[in-house]
Amino acid sequence: MVTSVLVGTSVPDAENSPYLLIITGVGGLMIMAIGCNLLELVKIRVGSFLPAIAIAPLIYFLFSY
Fold it and tell me: What pLDDT, in 10s, does the model give residues 14-23?
């Protein structure tokens, strides 16, 4: 019971946090790119997605106000 209360207050709610949704979306694209690389469908450089984890929420913050 105590751990669920602690976790519930420390983890932001995805419905109320668009930044969390943006970071999750970028992470999902990276996982899809890794899958395409493993299946040898297309060669995607996944490392070029890493700056997007920080830049995408920043762009949202700048254009939301």
Answer: 677 888 899 9
Quote the pTM value.
Answer: 0.73
Q: What is the domain partition of the chain in residue ranges?
A: 12-64
Please count the other Cβ atoms lying within 10 Å of the Cβ belonging to residue 23: 16
pLDDT in tens, 45-58: 999 999 999 999 99
DSSP string, 20-64: HHHHHHHHHHHHHHHHHHHTTSS---GGGGHHHHHHHHHHHHHHH
Contact 36, 44 (CB under 8 A): yes
The SS3 assignment for 9 reads helix
Length of the chain: 65
